[in-house]
Design the sequence.
């Protein structure tokens, strides 16, 4: 089966530098606000279950999103900034590029019969430049309940 390489075919688009979601400070603020919202959504009440469903199941390409796992990276400001933005793609792909796979095979760091696959690779545009794209794997991505259109 042919799968895509990490970052293959993923491109962002130029966005406004005025978009508060695409700044380190805006990203940090979003993560601070989403963390208690997500925790509250875990309650067993029907309203909280609906909120949880909206946060976790309503993730769509083009929407503002946050990577749940990054809420706990207190000291890694770069990762926190790259954890909030617009969802570009969510897909299954190879865990490494073909060139890295070949290096791993030569070094004995990989089993030739078991090439790793990422079931959920998420690509977020975290900054205003088209190149400001970050790949996240093994994480939970949350839809942000925001109504503005940048």
Sequence:
């Amino acid at each position: 089966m042919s799968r895509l390489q990490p970052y293959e075919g993923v491109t962002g688009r130029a966005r406004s530098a005025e978009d508060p979601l695409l700044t380190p400070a805006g990203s940090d603020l979003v993560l601070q606000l989403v963390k208690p919202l997500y925790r509250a959504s875990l309650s067993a009440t029907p309203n909280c279950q609906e909120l949880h469903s909206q946060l976790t199941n309503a993730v769509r390409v083009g929407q503002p999103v946050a990577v749940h796992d990054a809420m706990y990276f207190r000291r890694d400001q770069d990762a926190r900034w790259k954890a909030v933005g617009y969802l570009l793609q969510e897909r299954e792909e190879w865990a490494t590029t073909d060139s890295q796979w070949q290096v791993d095979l030569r070094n004995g760091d990989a089993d030739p019969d078991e090439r790793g696959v990422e079931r959920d690779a998420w690509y977020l545009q975290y900054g205003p430049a088209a190149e400001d794209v970050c790949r996240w794997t093994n994480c939970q991505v949350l839809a942000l309940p925001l109504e503005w259109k940048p």
Remarks:
- The helical segments are 24-41, 46-57, 77-81, 98-106.
- The chain has a mean pLDDT of 86.
- The chain has four helices and five strands.
- The first helix runs from residue 24 to 41.
